[in-house]
Amino acid sequence: MTGAAVAITDDWPAALLLGAFAHATLLVAGVVAVRWLDGRRRRDAGGILARALILGPAVVTLQELAGSLIGLPPDLWWVGAPWWAAAAWSAWSARRGRVVARDAAERVRGTGCHVAACALLVVPCAVAALAGAAAPIHTGDAMHNFALPARVFAAYGCFDVEALRGLADPGNVRYPPLLACCEALFLRADPMRGAWTVQPLHACALLAWLLLALEALGGRRLGVRGLAAFAIIAAVPQPMHNAIHGFADLRLAATTLLLLLEIAAFWRSGDARLLVATALAAAWTKEEGVLLALLAAACLVRRGVGPRADRGRVLAVAAGIAAAALAWPVWAIAHDLPLEYAGETRRLAAANVLAAGAQVPAVLTALAAASLRPDAFGTWPHGWIWPFAAAAWLCTARQRPARWLAIAGALHAAALAAGIALAGVPQVPFASVLDATADRVLLQLLPWPVLLLAAIAAPPVVGTTLAVRPPHPGLAPGGGATAQSAP
Amino acid sequence: MPRDVRRRWVGTTLLAAFAAVQVWLGAGSGRVWLERVPGQLRGFLGAPDAAPTLAPEVAAARALPRFAAAIPERSRVLLVTSVLVRVQYEFWFLPRPFRMLLHVPPDTLDLVARAWPEYLWFAAHRLRTYAARGQVLTEERLQQELATTEYVVAFAGGAPEFDSWRSRAGAAALEVVLACDDSVLYRVRR
C-alpha cells in the first residue's frame, strides 16, 4: 500500500528552501551577534564565520526561550525577522559609511598553504553534510537528547513541563536546550521533513571546529608547519563521525576551542563580551559546558582582581555567567524532569566518583584502548592526534604556555571523568562506561592538543595570547579596538 | 644552494608529503561514508514494502511520518510494539495525544542477561518503569485503550498477540488505513 508516500516525498523543494532559510537565519543571527560583540575589532571572514556558527544558535536559543516566556512559539518568521533586519541595516550602514580600506600591510596574499588548508577544510565538511543529510534524525542521542525535546518545544511553543513529563518514553529531556531550540525551528517550519533539513547543522559545527583550529594555527598567516599541523587535526576521525551522527560533542569541542581562544583574547584586551557569549553557548550545548562556563567566570574574576579594575562590574558579569550557566540544570531539577538513569543511581553517584578514583589504572587502560581502536571503518585510530600532541608538549615543555595548556587539559580530562562517573551508570563498571564513551571524551578534549600543536606550528599565536601579561586589567567594552583577534 | 635554504626545502617537502599521506589515508573514511549515502536514501525514502529487513529505527522513520500524515492533529493515537525495540515513536506523532503499549516477552531479562549482562540492571529498571506507568500490553489494557483511542499503530509486528486480541475487541473494530513494511495503521470504528 503506497497511498501515504506523498507525506514524505512530495514538496521537497519547498521543504529544502525552508530548511536553507532556517540555516541562513542561524548564520545571520551569528554574524550580527559577532559584529555587535566584537565592537570595533577587525576580524577576517573565517574568524567571523567560525564565531557566527557557534554563537548564532546560542543567540537564537536565548531569543526562543525569551519568546516562549511571553507565549511566542519558535516560528521561523518572527525568530528570523530581527536578525535579517539587523543584517540589512548593518549592510546599509556599511555601504553608506564605506569602511576604511585595509592597510596594505594587513593584506596577506593567498599561498599554496591556504589552498591546501581550504581543501582540508571543505572536503570533510562536504562529506559530513552529505552523509549526515542522507538520513533524518531517527535514533541515538540525537533523538533522545535534543530531537524529542525539540518536538515538544515545536509542538507546544515552549518546554511544556507536563508534556515533557508525560512522554511515553521521555529519553533525556533534561538535556541543555541549545540544540533542541535550534531543531525546533526546523520542526516547526516543516514537522515531517524538518528531521531531514536540520541535519547540516552538525556539519556547520565541523566547519566551525576546523576554522577555529585553522585560526589557532595562524589563520591568514598559515605557514607550512601550520598546514602540517592542520592536516593532522583534520585527519582525526571523531569530528567527522560526530558531525554525521549528529551528537553534541563536536559542537561542544568547537565551543571549547573558541572559549579558550576568547579567554586568551580577553587576557590580552580586557574585552569580555565574546567570552561571555561563548561561555553561555557552552553551558547550553551540553552538561559538561556548564563547567567551561564556570571556568570563564573564574577567569573573569581572576583577571578583574587588580588595583585598576572595576571589581564590582567584573564580579557582576562573572556572577551573571554562573547564574545563566546553572539556570537550565536548576530549572530541570526544580521541575523534576525525568532522567534517563533515575532512581537508585542518584544515591550511588557520589560513591561512584570515589570508586572511579580507585579505578585509575582501569580508566587509563580504557582510554588507551579507545585511542588505539580504529574508527568505525578501520581507517584511523581514535587517538591519532595524541602522539603528536605529546611530541609538541615535549618540544615546548619548558615554555610557560605549553605547561599551562597541559595542566589545564589534564584537569579538564579529570573533570570529564568525574562527570561521567557522577552522571553515568553506577551499576556498570566505570571502565565499561568509559570504554563506551571514550571516543566522545577524547573528542571533547581535542582543543588541548590543537593548542599544543599550535604552540609548535604557530608559536607567536599561543605564546603571545597566553604568556603576555595584560596591559589593562578589568573589563573594557571598547578595549578590543586595538586588539588583533585573528593572528 | 646554501645550507639553510636546502634545509628549508627538505623540511617543507617532508611536511607537504606528510600532509598528502594523511589526506590520502583520511579520504578512505570519507569515501566509505559517501558510498553509504545512496543506500541510506533508498532505505529511508524507498517505497513501502521495498525494504525487507530494516533496523527498527529506520522502519520507524519510514513508516511513522506516513502514518502521522494520515492522522488528524487532535486524534488520540495508540502504538503497540515490543519492549525489545526502543524507538522514540512519539517524536513522529506529537502534538497528538499518544499512548504506547509494550509487549514484554517473558524471557526479556534472560535475553538481556545473555547479550548485555552489564546492562541487566538498566533493563530491569526500564521494565519496572513501564509497569508502573501502565505501559505493559495486556488484553485488558488494550481493550481499555481501544475504548478511548481513535487510531492504532501496530509497529513492526512487535506484539504477536495483538492480532488475536484485536479480533476480540468487541465494539471497537479496527479498520486498516495504511501499511508500510510490516507496520500497520488502523482506525478505530465505532
Your description of this structure?
The complex is a heterodimer of chains A (487) and B (190). Chain A has 23 helices and no strands. Chain A is an all-alpha fold. Chain A has a domain of 310 residues. In chain A, α3 crosses α14, α5 packs antiparallel against α10 and α10 runs antiparallel to α12. Chain B is built from 7 helices and 5 strands, in the order ααβαβαααβαββ. The model of chain B has no long low-confidence stretch (mean pLDDT 82). Chains A and B meet through α1, α5, α6, α11 and α12 of A and α1, α2, α3, β2 and α5 of B.
Concise overview:
The complex is a heterodimer of chains A (487) and B (190). Helix content of chain A is 72%, strand content 0%.
Kindly list the characteristics that best describe this protein.
heterodimer; A: 487 residues; 0% strand; disordered C terminus; B: 190 residues; 2 domains; 5 strands
> Greatest contact pair?
A-B, 61 and 58 residues
Helix count of chain B?
7
- Order of SSEs of chain B: HHEHEHHHEHEE
Total number of helical segments of chain A? 23
- Shape, principal axes of CA atoms of chain B: elongated
Which residue ranges of chain B are poorly predicted, with pLDDT under 50 across at least 5 consecutive positions? none
Measured as a percent range, the helix fraction of chain A is over 70%
Largest sheet of chain A: none
- What is the number of E strands of chain B? 5
